[in-house]
Amino acid sequence: MSSQSKLSEEKLRLDDNQKSNQQNINHNTNILNYFKENIEESFEMAKDLENILKNCSDLTNEQKSDYCKSQRYFMKQYLKKLNKKI
Fold first, then answer.
1. Of 82, 85, 10, residue with least CA distance to 43
2. Residue 34 CB neighbour total at 10 angstroms
3. What local confidence, expressed as pLDDT, does residue 60 receive?
4. C-alpha triplet 70, 55, 32: angle, nearest 5°
């Protein structure tokens, strides 16, 4: 295989990875926007994450950290919306 064709294949693989990453970002953004709009859903999600943290003893420290960050995000969204109502 020539070096030119190897470079072309590598470029195609990188392009595919970028497209996949962008699709994941778009999907996650849509999910986050949904929760920004729905105050009760944000609170429920924060409570669900709390239950996962309390009841799943087999989580790694990294997974626990990720769940805590997510819970913090949803609680923050809930409190922002609550303050706007007041």
1. 82
2. 11
3. 93
4. 20
Q: How many CB atoms lie within 10 A of CB 73?
A: 16
Q: What is the pTM of this model?
A: 0.56
Residue pair 35/45 in contact by the 8 Å Cβ criterion: yes
Blockwise average pLDDT, block size 10, the chain, 86 residues: 61 64 64 66 89 91 92 90 78
pLDDT for 54? 92
In the block, tokens 């986050």 appear at 32
Do 15 and 30 fall into the same domain? yes
What is the number of structural domains in the chain?
A: 2
Structure tokens at 36: 């920004």
Tell me which residue of 27, 50, 47, 35 sits closest to 80, measured CA to CA: 35
Q: Given the structure tokens 């929760």, which residue do they identify?
A: 35
Residue 72: φ, ψ to 5°: -60, -45
Tell whether 44 and 80 lie within a shared domain. Answer: yes
